[in-house]
Amino acid sequence: MNKKIQLVYLLPWSWYTKCSELCQRLSGIGHIYVCLFFNVLTYSYLNIWYESCYRYPNLFVYAMLKNYVILGFRNLVKDKFYSLINILGLTIGVTCGMLLFLYVTDELSYDRYHEKASRIYRVVSYIREPDKINRWVSTQPPLVKTLKQDYPFVENYVRFFPAGRVMFRQGERRFYEEDIYCADSTVFDVFTYKFLEGDPKKALDVPGSVVLTQKVAQRFFGQKSALGQVLQTGDATSYKVTGVIEDVPKNSHFTFNALLSLDQNQRNADGWGGFYINSYLLLSKNANIKNLEAGFPGLYDKYMSSIFKRMGIHITYQMQPLTSIHLHSKLDGESNGDIGYVYTFSAIAFFMLLIASINYMNLATAQSARRAKEVGLRKVMGSMKGALVTQFLTESVLITLVSLVSSLILVAALLPFFNTVSGKEIGYMQLLSPRFVLIGLSIVAFTGLVSGSYPAFYLSAFEPAQVLKGSFKARGGSFFRKALVVAQFSISLVMLICTWIVYQQLNYMRNKDMGYDRDQVLTIDYQDNQSQDKYNAFRKALLDNPSIERVASASAPVSNIGGRIIFTVESSTGMKEMAFKPSVIDHDYIKTMGMKVIAGRDFSTEFPADTTNGVLVNEATVKRMNWQEPIGKKIVLGSLPADGKNPPPTALVVGVVKDFHQQSLYNPIEPMIMMYRRANSVMHVKIKTSNTASTLAFIRQKWQEVYPDRLFEYRFLDQDFQSAYHADELRGQIFTVFSGLTILIACLGLFGLATFTTEQRVKEIGVRKVLGGSVSSVVLLLSKDFTRLVLLSFPIAIPVAYFSMDRWLQSFPYKTGIQPWVFITACVLTLLICWLTVIYQSLKAALANPVKSLRSE
């Protein structure tokens, strides 16, 4: 009998309407008899459906699902305003969730395109000095070659020797190319790169070979074949093109534009004292990583102790899986992604969907009184609770499906903008990938079931007798709605505070005094030391222009002084061999860069002996050596030879320079020693702010006169500085946009809830106005409940935001503090947003004519 009675769902909707109207006119027990009479009249109709569905069960399922969908659409159309709010909130939430999913997926995909990625490891160095630990990406050249000889499960190895920025020439075409490396011929046996021309097995076997990426090949040769062509470098070295590969995918932790074959010296390099190459191993499938790492101390004892032990330096290594480098590696001077951001953006996507689901729950339970009679009537007709739950879940899934379709259109439209904001190169084909389709269906299932679960079980639990008698009062839903609103605004407030602090930190890094003047400073990179005569001629020509204030040279750009070498330095216990950052500068460098000498003097042409007998140190060196009086301290410009023969020259400290940042603020200021040379490989030119274009044209002209065989390329120092924080700025933009959208979704739900609450209290408001209530008192009445809920979110959100951001800031050597005013301002702003959201409906109700609302009473 139950199966037959359940089929009452399949009756025309007009039957339900007429029955509902009839039931509303009755009171007491009478309406039950009417419902039973209605059921008897329709029994024969039900019996026909039952017989058909009994014989054809698939038809029964189809009919039931079709009926659920039809009823769901009817309810959507019936409450257009609330449906629109739910769909809009879910559309924003699903769109953001999908975009963030694309971002997270791209971050997790780094280096996974290599066929042997699961077996490739990078070897990195851990160098422990008596007073510090250095973690370097680079290793010594013979390391991986030795590991290949000693461990059978090491199948192969690859070493990348950095060549930096190289000028290539082919006929009249000359271009500077960044990220050029010399590599072992085994590189294409270990890593997977698609060859467009050439044989990967032989491409780098012969010295003087080069493999180009497609972009570089087209730059020099257009659409013609590059294979067999010859390129020359600035020093007239010739390289034959033996291969062309597709451009290295952007989701790689390591990229290059060309690979050069190793020369004889690089192939046979066996020095264990220098760390300057990147090393990778290909292991067999059953390789024992722990066994390999356990042998690292033996390498130190056998090959390095004679070099480093007397300095108190100990060296070991770590194996990094290739696929974990991008998100998990945080070595000195390395710029990678961060698994923390992956977790953060995943959480944002989840919370945005959750807040959108909360909106649906709130509005659905708030409208419970409207649908109570519908539920009561269906139960009287024999509907089971499971069928009612299914109906309400169907409605929520329908809303989610409509939102999903809208979201897919928005994702396709916003993808170019999202790529710009995030710095990604996500293509439209990824929207058709099985993974993306699966995540879309998962979002529908998650959001539809989560948002519809509570309303479904809540509404289906109504007692039909109380509902149809008119004595029904919803219980429990009000408290749950309030809790959900508090949860919504707690999440929104946490995101608002976190966004604020993220931008504070980025702004702090952009504006912090770096210890030098980076404005209007050009950097010109020679790539090698210039003859002093040419340098002096170029420098003199530039200084003749009144728009050029100063010219100086150094061995490296001031914003990227890397590497360390061994110096023998005077200490309180004698001469000690220690590693310091070196820099070679001329006598104009300190003044040009706006640095300060706080003790002693600067380099000067009045002291020619400074080129061999004088050095400058920074404050960090003085602090490290614990010098009370640094001027006159001895520094041997190198490591003392073991046999004591031909020691390096000894210099004296002539001045102390105020600390300046040698790299970005992600790296602490390190002790450094500056030596004096008059012509170096990097030039800094300080120009005036007026007539910048004509000044640059003048510099280009003089360059071509002095260096006709070299391309003129420059960059502004402040651009180099900003590029160091570009990735974090992009993440900050993403965080800001989605934080704002999270607040918007919460406000949409609050707006809908305020609208419904105002409608429910319209007669109460009319009575208050008739009795003399003012507009302001009515507005305050309607706003205070929501204000309480937002205020309750403050003590929940503030501790969560504080501890989250305090932990995040610990990863920065130089960081801004967490100021109380940030929390106060964020709370006030959230409260204002709440009031602005509610005020429209409150004013509309307060200004309405009370006669209209009381006319029916």
Automatic annotation (TrEMBL):
Annotated ABC3 transporter permease C-terminal domain residues: 347-463, 737-848
GO cellular component, one term: plasma membrane
TM regions (residue ranges): 32-50, 84-104, 340-361, 397-418, 438-462, 483-503, 734-754, 789-809, 821-843
Residues spanning the signal sequence: none
Keyword terms, alphabetized: Cell membrane, Membrane, Transmembrane, Transmembrane helix
Protein name as catalogued: ABC transport system permease protein
Subcellular location: Cell membrane
Species of provenance: Dyadobacter helix
GO molecular function annotations of the record: transmembrane transporter activity
Top-level lineage group: Bacteria
Domain MacB-like periplasmic core: 83-293, 501-672
Entry-linked Pfam families: FtsX, MacB_PCD
Bilayer disposition of the protein: Multi-pass membrane protein
